[in-house]
Design a protein that fits this description.
Elements: H1 2-5, E1 10-15, E2 17-30, E3 37-50, H2 51-61, E4 64-72, H3 75-86, E5 94-97, E6 103-110, E7 113-120, H4 128-141, E8 147-151, H5 160-172, E9 176-180, E10 194-195, H6 199-206, H7 213-226, E11 232-235, E12 241-244, E13 248-251, H8 264-277, H9 282-296, H10 307-316, E14 326-327, H11 329-341, E15 346-351, H12 358-368, E16 373-379, H13 381-388, H14 397-405, E17 412-416, H15 422-428, E18 432-436, E19 452-456, H16 464-473
Parallel strand pairs: 1-4, 1-8, 2-6, 4-5, 8-9, 9-10, 14-17, 15-16, 15-18, 16-17, 18-19
Antiparallel strand pairs: 2-3, 6-7, 11-12, 12-13
Helix pairs in contact: 2-8, 4-5, 6-7, 8-9, 9-10
């Protein structure tokens, strides 16, 4: 996961951009003019929709995104340009076609229930001049990109000419193309790396009823051969993802709680592309996409997912490694800020934790019980030597951090080399600062930056110093 945190691949998205517009309000009466509800609008929100939701997901994961699309020369088009600019996505590849309506879908929500949707959009195929402009844009930038996504929502941008031109340009540059397909005839996507249809879409496109492993494999092979794909994929909702290149593999997923499947397909193709761009194999990228989708379906509405959220999800399934829980200072500062915004109570403690023993474990378990997330500041090797003398630590900082991060009670470990964790505590600003009971009546470094200080009593006779003494004496506990 650390490799993904450090990567910021450039991904090119070609597709149907739209605006999702929400009118939120309440309803307490029926109109005297007609038997319809009267909604008192309290607020309006807009988010990027269609291929824009793929873009939002990529930006949330840390990718640098370029986009090629055709929009109208209208007010909604201006709004869309502004929305892309706000999230730092360039608009050089957006073609304004006169007379075309930029897609905007407006939903009226009363008491959290959608009661009406009305659309303003053009659904006819874009003009030949616009097709040429999109393909020319792709040809001019594709060499600088790591991967290409075609997000087809059937609104007229991904014509046969655009799909063919984009795939040809990408293949010429040695870049993979991932496609979220639309319709029943997928032949226009021939030559892509893979497609991401769901089971229903794949059944309609192949004419194969998918109801067991045999029919699933048959559909995967049909898609692979018909569209000359390097890898064939079908998403299976709560059953995960199936792929076929040289053989068929299934990657199951576990969504703890499903609130809304809106946008899950956008999250799958975005996370797959991100993982592949970072050098993961398809067998590594598929579970990553599964986990991303599992996080998103636990949210309301079209949603995005961050690497930290995927990391937390994997940890909850006990599928994460210790490495994923060891953070740099900058990472832990950003993470603690996000956690507090999410309403999580952050607990911080620190120490050398040289030879881990039962006293440490019980101390950390009690510390974790005070909040939702426990961050442990770990003294570096040089810092331990300053505190304990030249013969310490017994275990290196890398070993100590890895073992600490493996404990169920510890969520994150961060190393510090300073004499005290003053700056670490200042920047984390934990809800609760935990120290040992030997600090009773003493000043605690960084206490002024925490909302609350709690002292935990140590287990009698359990310490690293005592453990080393017994080893030197050749005695047992």
């Amino acid at each position: 996961m650390r490799r993904l945190h450090d990567s910021h691949p450039r991904i090119l998205v070609i597709g149907d951009l739209m605006i999702d517009h929400y009118l939120w309000g309440g309803c307490e009466r029926i109109s005297p003019e007609a038997p319809v509800q009267v909604v008192d609008i309290a607020r309006e929100t807009t988010v990027l929709g269609g291929a824009g939701n793929v873009i939002n997901n990529l930006v949330a994961l840390g990718a640098r995104v370029s986009v090629g699309a055709v929009i109208g020369d209208d007010e909604n088009g201006e709004e869309l340009l502004s929305m892309l600019g706000i999230i730092g996505v360039g608009t050089d590849g957006l073609i304004r076609q006169a007379g075309r309506k930029t897609s905007k879908k407006s939903r009226i929500i009363a008491s959290n229930q959608q009661i009406l949707r009305y659309d303003k959009e053009s659904k006819d195929s874009i003009a030949p001049e616009s097709e040429n402009a999109v393909v020319s844009y792709v040809e001019s930038v594709v060499k600088e990109c790591d991967i290409v996504i075609i997000s087809d929502y059937g609104k007229g941008v991904i014509t046969d000419a655009v799909a063919g031109g984009v795939i040809a340009a990408a293949k010429s540059a040695g870049k993979k193309v991932l496609v979220d397909p639309k319709g029943k005839d997928y032949r226009k996507y021939r030559g892509a790396y893979l497609l991401t249809p769901n089971k229903k879409e794949a059944s309609e496109a192949t004419g194969i009823a998918i109801n067991d492993d045999a029919s699933l494999k048959k559909a995967l092979l049909n898609l692979k051969e018909t569209c000359t794909l390097e890898c064939s994929m079908i998403t299976l909702s709560e059953d995960g993802i199936a792929i076929y290149d040289e053989s068929m593999r299934r990657f199951p997923t576990v969504a703890k709680e499903v609130f809304d499947v809106t946008g899950a397909g956008d999250t799958v193709i975005a996370s797959l592309s991100f993982a592949l761009s970072c050098g993961l194999s398809i067998d590594e990228a598929a579970p990553f996409a599964n986990h991303a989708a599992a996080v998103v379906v636990g949210k309301i509405g079209s949603a995005t997912v961050t690497l930290s959220e995927i990391e937390a999800y994997e940890s909850s399934l006990h599928q994460s490694t210790s490495d994923m829980h060891i953070k740099t200072k900058d990472e832990i500062y950003a993470l603690s800020e996000r956690l507090k915004k999410e309403g999580k109570k952050v607990v911080f403690t620190n120490g050398c934790f040289d030879i881990l023993h039962v006293g440490h474990v019980k101390y950390l378990q009690e510390a974790k019980s005070y909040g939702d997330v426990l961050i442990v500041g770990l003294n570096s090797d040089s810092s331990v030597r300053e505190l304990k003398g030249p013969t310490r630590p017994v275990n290196t900082e890398a070993d100590r951090a890895y073992i600490l991060a493996a404990l169920e009670s510890v969520d994150y470990v961060v190393l510090f080399s300073e004499e005290t964790p003053h700056d670490l505590i200042k920047n984390i600003a934990p809800d609760i600062l935990v120290k040992g009971g030997d600090y009773e009546g003493k000043a605690v470094v960084g206490a002024e930056f925490a909302k609350e200080l709690r002292l935990v009593q140590f287990v009698d006779g359990k310490s690293t110093t005592a453990t080393i003494a017994r080893i030197n004496e050749g005695t047992t506990c």
